[in-house]
Fold this protein.
Amino acid sequence: MMGEKNKMAFENAIITKEDDEKYGLSKIFYQYSPYHEELPRNFVVDRQKDIWFLLIERLPNEGYDYGYGSKKLWRLYIQGNNLDILLDYEYDQEVDGRKFQRVWKIIEVNVLNSIIPDNEVIKILRDVLIDFKFRPGWEDKDDFSVALIDVRKEK
């Protein structure tokens, strides 16, 4: 997988019973989000390369009681390697002089059991969030512009 030049074939997928059994998705999700009644719909997978990306926890909004903010915890699985990635996002932000409709921000990467180099993790996140244009269903415009920045370097 590392160093391959082929584009990844990510797809939005509904979690199947086989996916859940193979990867333990419900166990992972309910470990972080025990009060939710069903698995999230935000499951992005490249089955051929054995990579997936799953929302596992929505974090509370610091400004509102009982509401969720834009910060979310995601699990990135890469061929047996697991990473928890805290992402935030903002709408209509400028990056390097260009305005984007959504700017994803990498806040933290927690390596659970991974030997994947950080630059490869960033590349896969770019493939999922920018090239695949992962976005909520209501943002379905073809010209939807997305950027990814790593704010860990700013700390």
About this structure: Residues 1-5 have pLDDT under 50 and may be disordered. Residues 118-131 form the longest helix (14 residues). The first strand starts at residue 11 and ends at 12. Strands lie at 11-12, 43-46, 51-60, 68-78, 81-95, 98-113, 146-150.
